[in-house]
């Protein structure tokens, strides 16, 4: 339970943002527009999860019941400084993301995934932000698979299409798709140019020996090799005449540089393991990521790069390479790492893969997995994720994505279209008599889409948590008031006033004989239950709302009465 003081704090903060949203856009406030700034300004609310969104929904409903004049007056009374800021804002279009630096006349950006597995949720941040910038600046968006490490981060052949599917699901279509493993000859060509400019040399030092020299700002003895000798040995690398660890090509930088990580870094190395893509399986001389991505960014016309704050050294290494090739380096935005609440499993492709291989997860779409595929299977809309990602901005600070923000965004999109049904978990059966032959609750409380039909037989199931005490009354939704007498629920004939007065709780139910089995997969595990018979008529991939439980995406129905329909929990 949320204590009264915390609830008041949430309500007060939500009211300010709801009023701001309504006054700013001269329209009804939206829950999704309130949740983002509310959670960003008040991280202490995140632990309350769905409880916050329910408070926000109530606040938004109150604000939307006011007239525009009342809203403005209310905002002036409760948050005059916020209203003042609103009134001095320019007529320029508002954007969640900050403006890109430098020349934005022809923006071209890239997402550069390593296809060593399908995407976890954190991976979705890059295409969400880049796709948004593309739309904002009328630019272009490249997907480049940085698959030039066939050993340590070995590509997963299924991941290429899975990643493109995830990008499409998020609502974006790349203008170009590039596979780095198709471009080895291009990288060799530019390595030869750098060698000719005396910007690289071949080195057979062991990694440990070179590291010791480098850390002492001492030159490797191979640093003085002639261009001719380096060219000869590099061609032998390309021909695959060396084994792994026997020879590398180093980019000549400043051996006295204050940052040892920038001193004569490796541009190419030998890898004995064949690449899984057949077209690249014969290559043994592979570029390091800093070399490969630097060449590709220039040749594909990338104007702006977004990368993690931990990759600042990459830009500095690549600038040495650009100097040798006489190229201008793109604009760079560094951002902090992202974490996601509500999951026990780390945002790590290798960790998720291990959990699947160990049988603790049932694939990448398991709702317990923090993956894009999982969210999609649960019925989360792609643009609900994009909106939440953009709310995080591009700060160099580490950020935490609150799943409640995604849920709020999604709820505002699916609520109108989601038909309502009853589902009972952990049911308790009661005898029932003297009722109507069937009940006809509406398919939706607000949209006029008709009703569904629930048979009423001589046995009814309700959730164990809803079972009334002996002699107490409950109101069965769309059926009426009943009193518990032993193992029976007996109609009382009470009118709706007993509900309106708060004297009787309203609960949902199903007819025992006609109920169909349902299996609901949730982030906490699998829940078994039964649902009203009309639920079986829903189509797979439809999002419904099980009343008093939450939204769920229909995954599969079966014609076999003993096998359950399968749904995936979306959110409350």
Describe this structure in words.
This protein is α/β, with parallel strands linked by helices and 572 residues long. It has 4 domains: 4-88; 103-181 and 296-414, Rossmann fold (3-Layer(aba) Sandwich), CATH 3.40.50.620; 184-287, Glutamyl-tRNA Synthetase, domain 3 (Alpha-Beta Complex); 419-572, Ribosomal Protein L25, Chain P. Helices cover 34% and strands 20% of the residues. It is built from 17 helices and 27 strands. The strands form 7 sheets. A 7-stranded mixed sheet has the order 12-25-26-27-23-24-13. Helix 1 crosses helix 2 (31-41), helix 6 (125-137) packs across helix 15 (382-391) and helix 8 packs antiparallel against helix 10. The model has no long low-confidence stretch (mean pLDDT 94).
Estimate the mean pLDDT confidence.
94
Number of strands: 27
* CATH-derived architecture of the largest domain: 3-Layer(aba) Sandwich
Largest sheet: 7 strands, mixed
What is the C-alpha radius of gyration, as a whole number of Å?
30 Å
Taking strands numbered 1, 2, ... along the chain, how are they ordered across the largest sheet?
12-25-26-27-23-24-13
How many DSSP helices?
17
Class by SSE composition: alpha/beta
For this structure, what is the CATH homologous superfamily of the largest domain? HUPs
Cα(first) to Cα(last) distance is: 16 Å
- Tell me, what is the CATH class of the largest domain? Alpha Beta
Domain module count:
4
Looking at CATH, which topology of the largest domain would you report?
A: Rossmann fold
Summarize the amount of helix as a percent range: 25-40%
- Which percent range describes the beta-strand content? 15-25%
Q: Which spans have pLDDT < 50 for at least 5 consecutive residues?
A: none
Shape: elongated
């Amino acid at each position: 339970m949320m204590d009264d003081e915390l609830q008041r704090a949430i309500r007060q903060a939500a009211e300010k943002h709801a009023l701001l949203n309504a006054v700013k856009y001269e329209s009804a406030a939206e829950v999704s527009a309130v949740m983002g700034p509310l959670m960003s300004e008040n991280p202490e609310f995140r632990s309350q999860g769905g409880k916050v969104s329910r408070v926000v929904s109530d606040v938004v409903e109150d604000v939307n019941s006011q007239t525009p004049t009342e809203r403005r007056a209310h905002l002036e009374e409760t948050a005059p400084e916020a209203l003042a800021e609103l009134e001095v804002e320019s007529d320029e279009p508002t954007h969640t993301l900050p403006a890109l630096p430098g020349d934005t006349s022809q923006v071209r950006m890239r997402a550069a995934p390593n296809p060593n597995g399908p995407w976890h949720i954190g991976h979705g941040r890059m295409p969400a932000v880049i796709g948004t910038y593309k739309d904002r600046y009328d630019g272009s968006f490249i997907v480049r698979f940085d698959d030039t490490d066939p050993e340590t981060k070995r590509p997963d052949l299924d991941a290429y299409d899975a990643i493109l599917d995830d990008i499409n699901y998020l609502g974006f279509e790349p203008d170009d798709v590039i596979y780095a493993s198709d471009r080895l000859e291009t990288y060799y060509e530019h390595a030869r140019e750098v060698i000719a400019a005396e910007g690289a040399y071949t080195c057979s030092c062991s990694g440990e020996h070179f590291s010791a020299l480098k850390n002492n700002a001492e030159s490797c003895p191979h640093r003085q090799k002639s261009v001719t000798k380096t060219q000869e040995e590099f061609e032998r690398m390309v021909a695959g005449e060396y084994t792994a660890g026997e020879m590398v090509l180093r980019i000549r930088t400043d051996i006295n540089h204050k940052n040892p990580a920038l001193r004569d870094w490796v541009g190419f190395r030998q890898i004995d393991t064949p690449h899984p893509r057949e077209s690249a399986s014969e290559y043994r001389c592979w570029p390091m990521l800093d070399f490969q991505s630097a060449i590709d960014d220039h040749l594909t016309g990338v104007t702006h790069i977004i990368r993690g704050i931990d990759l600042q050294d990459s830009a500095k290494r690549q600038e040495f390479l650009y100097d040798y090739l006489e190229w201008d380096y793109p604009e760079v935005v560094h951002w902090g790492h992202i974490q996601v609440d509500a999951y026990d499993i780390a945002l790590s492709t290798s960790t998720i893969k291990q959990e699947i291989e160990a049988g603790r997860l049932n694939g990448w779409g398991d709702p317990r997995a923090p993956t894009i595929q999982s969210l999609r299977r649960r019925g989360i809309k792609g643009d609900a994720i994009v909106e939440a990602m953009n709310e995080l901005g591009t700060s160099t600070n580490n950020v935490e994505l609150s799943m409640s923000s995604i849920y709020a965004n999604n709820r505002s999109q699916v609520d109108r279209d989601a038909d309502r049904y009853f589902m009972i978990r952990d049911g308790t059966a009661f005898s029932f008599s003297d009722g109507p032959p069937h009940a006809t609750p509406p398919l939706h409380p607000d949209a006029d889409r008709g009703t569904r039909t629930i048979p009423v037989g001589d046995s009814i199931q309700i959730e164990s948590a809803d079972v009334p005490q002996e002699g107490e009354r409950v109101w069965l939704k769309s059926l009426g008031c009943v009193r518990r007498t032993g193992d029976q629920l007996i109609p009382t004939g009470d009118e709706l006033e007993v509900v309106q007065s708060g004297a009787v709780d309203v609960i949902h139910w199903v007819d025992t004989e006609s109920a169909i089995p349902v299996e609901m997969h949730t982030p906490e595990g699998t829940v078994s239950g039964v649902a009203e018979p009309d639920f079986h008529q829903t189509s797979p991939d439809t999002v419904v709302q099980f009343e008093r439980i939450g939204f769920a995406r229909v995954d599969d129905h079966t014609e076999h009465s003993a096998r359950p329909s399968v749904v995936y929990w979306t959110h409350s």
